[in-house]
Amino acid sequence: MSEQARHDKPETSRRAPARRRATLLAAVVAAAGIGFVGAAVGFVGFLSQLRGVETKPASNADGIVVLTGGSSRISDAVELLAGGYGKRLLISGVHPTNGVSDISRSLPDNQRLLTCCVDLDRSAVNTRSNASETRRWVDEQGFRSLIVVTSNYHMPRAIVELSYAMPDITLIPFAVIGDKWREEPWWTSGATLRLLLSEYAKYLAAEVRVRLAYLGLELAPEIGDQPTGSVEPRRPGS
């Protein structure tokens, strides 16, 4: 072996690990870039599902369910009940210490309806358990169709959970538009943007869990979720 060859071999050996590190780094950057673009496209798709205006349901249903946790949800649901869009209303996710009287104080014009035609679910603590408790109520009532009332940003995830829990029930969404959403574009409010990003992540988690469940892979632990359980909004209205 020549003197030059003996000199070049260590140099070649030193370059090989450097090339592998560069290749690995490039692969990681490319994967991160693809993941970021995919998440951004998915977020745009998620936003496209959100309604910007409230639209009355095109048809009546047997029952109405409202998932607590956002501004105006309960009052809008009671208005639908008063308008004859459903026979009974389930308020799902009510705090264990709250009763109809607590709700009626904020809805003095609907005392009779609250007494005769409203049921409270105090067991649900998140959207997944909202769906489970709603299924129980629907089975008890013998209903076949349901108007779903929740905030516009929460509706995609709510429909995923409710559709999985009640595949044979016709669901009619009624998206509530909060005051904050009406007053300013979401992209100008840091709080609303954070809320949407958080909800998008939860929506993706719910989609993945439900799709895996359809394949027979049930994930027993519930994925992180926004606790409900109050008749008052806990999240900023949007």
From TrEMBL:
This chain's source organism reads Nitrobacter hamburgensis (strain DSM 10229 / NCIMB 13809 / X14)
Give GO BP annotations, semicolon-separated: Gram-negative-bacterium-type cell wall biogenesis; peptidoglycan metabolic process
Q: Name one GO cellular component term.
A: plasma membrane
> PANTHER family under this entry?
ENVELOPE BIOGENESIS FACTOR ELYC, INNER MEMBRANE PROTEIN, PROBABLE PERMEASE
Q: Tell me the keywords, alphabetical order.
A: Membrane, Transmembrane, Transmembrane helix
Positions of transmembrane segments: 24-47
Name of protein: DUF218 domain-containing protein
Supply the InterPro entries for this chain: Cell_Envelope_Assoc (IPR051599), DUF218 (IPR003848), Rossmann-like_a/b/a_fold (IPR014729)
Q: Which residues form the DUF218 domain?
A: 62-201
